[in-house]
Amino acid sequence: MQETNNVRALVLGAAAGGGLPQWNCGCSNCREARDPNGALTPQTQSSLAVTANGRDWSLLNASPDIRSQIEANPALHPRSLRDTPIASVLVTNGDIDHIAGLLILREKQPFRLFTTAAIGDILAANPVFEVLDPNCVERITIALDQPFALVDGMEATLFAVPGKLPLFMEGENPDTALEGEQTVGVELTASGKRIYYIPGCGRLTDRLAARIRGADLVFFDGTVFHDDEMARAGTGLKTGRRMGHMPMSGEGGSIEALKDLAIGRTIYVHINNTNPVWQHGPERRAAEQAGHEIGHDGMEVQLT
Ligand code: MLT
Ligand code: MN
Ligand code: ZN
């Protein structure tokens, strides 16, 4: 196994909740991802793994696909009888695509679980998560804007990002621009590099833009290309913004908003199955011509 002092980020799952294909979706992207001769490769749900030493890893979000994600990435395999290179798991909101994988991580394996108090409350309110034996899994509450040791050689800081309560808690008319502990972004610092992981973001505020300006690497919310894309695809009526996700295109979209922030690399993750950027068409070209990359499962970035 490769052990280095390079900071590495591994996209375990590039898709948003549901994945590509989504179990009950027959949209053109999902159909193509199901077709062995189709142009689209299936993509799993939202998660990133990071390391600063090549040996100890932290998972940013625990997706329902975590079992196959670990199997697909040899760096995360056990190195002895009962073992894992996964030293910690950090959750950025309480949505199913980011917490359900915690249930797969039962089996009396020690690791540290970092959440904000609000996200920790969601786990605490659902007794099924008690399957993570507190004698093995240490739950650690992290305050916003306070750096902490995420994994050997890497610090993280959580910060509020406009978003909303998880789908299963949102009620009739959710505030989709909540800025608090419900939805957070992550700043990672290691070996003099500054990386951001922001898989859900309702709006790129001036404050957020100032924060990420000049970063070496930003993983950003690529849920939808068009705000009304679900309606266009015929798969639903909700807009991206209603789901707490700013669109990539258009006024106030992330393609424009991220373009002039002097960021080394911007990579879209948490990409919904309806998003046309999965295809090699004009939408993907628009993102790429603005200097952004489209994430995919197994994509690895090394910062030297
Ligand atoms: C989201 O990112 O909006 C959620 O993951 C939606 C969901 O829980 O399906
Ligand atoms: Mn999601
Ligand atoms: Zn679909």
TL;DR of this structure?
The protein has helices at residues 28-34, 66-72, 96-99, 117-125, 206-212, 229-233, 254-259, 282-289, and strands at residues 7-13, 47-51, 57-60, 86-90, 111-115, 137-141, 148-151, 154-160, 184-190, 193-198, 217-221, 265-269, 292-294, 300-303. It is α/β, with parallel strands linked by helices and 304 residues long.
Ordered list of secondary-structure elements with their pairings:
Layout: E1 7-13, H1 28-34, E2 47-51, E3 57-60, H2 66-72, E4 86-90, H3 96-99, E5 111-115, H4 117-125, E6 137-141, E7 148-151, E8 154-160, E9 184-190, E10 193-198, H5 206-212, E11 217-221, H6 229-233, H7 254-259, E12 265-269, H8 282-289, E13 292-294, E14 300-303
Parallel strand pairs: 3-4, 4-5, 5-6, 10-11, 11-12, 12-13
Antiparallel strand pairs: 1-2, 1-14, 2-3, 7-8, 8-9, 9-10
Order of helices and strands: EHEEHEHEHEEEEEHEHHEHEE
Number of domains: 1
Tally of strands:
14
Shape: globular
The number of distinct helices, counting runs of at least 4 residues, comes to: 8
Largest sheet: 7 strands, mixed
Quote the CATH topology.
Metallo-beta-lactamase, Chain A
The rounded distance between the terminal residues' Cα atoms is: 18 Å
Spatial sequence of strands, sheet with the most strands: 6-5-4-3-2-1-14
CATH architecture: 4-Layer Sandwich
The percent range for helix content is 10-25%
Mean pLDDT: 97
CATH superfamily: Ribonuclease Z/Hydroxyacylglutathione hydrolase-like
User: Uncertain regions: pLDDT < 50 for 5+ in a row?
Assistant: none
Small molecules bound: D-malate, manganese (II) ion, zinc ion
